[in-house]
Amino acid sequence: MSDAAATTPAGVPLGRVVAALEARYDPALAEPWDAVGLVCGDPVEVVRSVLFAVDPTSAVVDEAIELGADLVVTHHPLLLTPVHGVPADDAKGRLVHRLVRAGIGLFVAHTNADRAAGHGVNDALAAALGLVDAVPLEPSTTPGAGLGRVGVLREATSLQRFAEQVATALPATPGGVRVVGDPGRSVRTVAVCGGSGGSLLAAAAEAGADVFLTSDVKHHPAVDAAEVPGPALCDVAHYASEWPWLPVAADLLHRDLGGQVRVTVSGRRTDPWTFRVDGAPHR
User: 265 pairs with which residues across the strands?
Assistant: First the structure.
């Protein structure tokens, strides 16, 4: 037996991989409007290699084909809104055709992964920022599950220093880390929500957070947060806030399947912003 053959995983049927993923990321936790689960792929086909990514983009499909992956697991859905066809001359349809032709399945864990207890998107984000004793900001009926997390840093720090730690802990993006608040403000209790979590600002305030980190914060809520008592705000790229989940999910799947599949975290940055130009500050 060659070395290559000796290191090739035995693989398992796609249906078993899906069952393992859904055991960790229960579809029942997903929002009613969400589109999670298996998008394409034959449950009886053998999966030996799985690629994890935040977004199902053409660059990620390129990478999956180059790696010889049998399955791509993404956080964001490819087909979030109802469709009546996937023609190859449509951007999303083209990706479906490429995946099917290459024999690659696609699986999505979105808001169910956001809410998952212990190993979901928000727990991974909290862990990446060094939070301890993190609990859901908006609990669900499943113990330990829910949206967002609030926890504490091992040692208090300034808002400036916290933002610098965020920039180090998360993938770099052109948008960087935007902050609302006094740089010298003391920070110990931190609330987070991966993705667009602006709706949880009130919950973060009620939880006594010194700062709330999320993505896609709109102008008016940011202005309001600067004018009233409550947490400071850290706004990071949507992609960056959810990326820490990828290595966690990949490692869990590898262990849950007894090492019978190879797992890889995508090296392609799927944050859509490509560059930023900083002008002179207004006085």
Answer: 52
- What confidence tens digit (pLDDT) does each residue in 145-198 have? 999 999 999 999 999 999 999 999 999 999 999 999 999 999 999 999 999 999
> What's the DSSP call for residue 23?
H
Degrees to nearest 5, angle at CA 180 with 134 and 270 = 70
Q: Which amino acid is at 279?
A: G
pTM over 0.90: yes
Is residue 54 a contact partner of residue 270, using CB atoms and an 8 Å limit? yes
- Alpha helices for 10-106 (secondary structure H): 14-24, 58-67, 91-101
Whether 13 contacts 266, CB under 8 Å: no
Burial 155-173 (b: 16+ CB within 10 A, else e): eebebeebbebbbeebbeb
- Compute the C-alpha angle 31/253/49, nearest 5°: 110
